[in-house]
Amino acid sequence: MKNRYLSPNELAVMLVLWNAGRALSRPEILAEIEISDWNPNSIHLILNNLIEKGFVKVSGIARCGKGYGRTYEAVRSQISYGAGLALSVMPDGGDADSVVDMVSAMVKEAGVDSDTILRLEEMLRKYRREIDKEG
């Protein structure tokens, strides 16, 4: 998926959804927003923008006060969004050499241990097998 930047208000909504780990109604989202100058009426527009960008989907209906309302859940993960942001600032938009350099830098910056390196190696072997099957 091509990375799309999120506005500060969109990111605030996504952080609520990512932290909840489940579908939320508009009132539940608004209750968790930590922006002091938030206009609660703008939540409709923000959620529609997030749906259009492929970050959120309507997942069902839930009781909201005396009525019913839609619930929303994250489609794109926080990790996926972060990876897209990192790639968007890379020279050449994240060509093969840039990806290798970025992963190397992330491993060094995070100070990963040998168990994590083993997990990364297994993940890479898995992806290699998938690519070999396709090609």
Explain how this protein is built:
This protein is α+β, with helices and mostly antiparallel strands and 135 residues long. It has two domains: 8-74, Arc Repressor Mutant, subunit A (Orthogonal Bundle), CATH 1.10.10.10; 94-134. 57% of the residues lie in helices and 14% in strands. The protein is built from six helices and three strands, in the order αβααββααα. It has helices at residues 8-20, 26-32, 43-52, 78-88, 96-110, 114-134, and strands at 24-25, 56-64, 67-74. Strands 1-3-2 form a three-stranded antiparallel beta sheet. It starts with 7 loop residues before the first helix and ends with a helix. The mean pLDDT is 88.
How is this fold's topology laid out?
Layout: H1 8-20, E1 24-25, H2 26-32, H3 43-52, E2 56-64, E3 67-74, H4 78-88, H5 96-110, H6 114-134
Antiparallel strand pairs: 1-3, 2-3
Features:
135 residues; alpha+beta; Arc Repressor Mutant, subunit A; 2 domains; three-stranded antiparallel sheet; 6 helices; elongated
Concise overview:
A hairpin with a 2-residue loop joins β2 and β3.
The CATH architecture category of the largest domain equals: Orthogonal Bundle
Number of helical elements: 6
Order of helices and strands: HEHHEEHHH
Do you know the CATH topology of the largest domain? Arc Repressor Mutant, subunit A
What kind of sheet is the major sheet? 3 strands, antiparallel
Please tell me what the overall shape is: elongated
How many strand elements? 3
Give the helix level as a range of percent.
Answer: 55-70%
Category from helices, strands and their pairing: alpha+beta
* CA gyration radius, whole angstroms: 19 Å
The averaged pLDDT comes out at 88
What proportion strand?
A: 5-15%
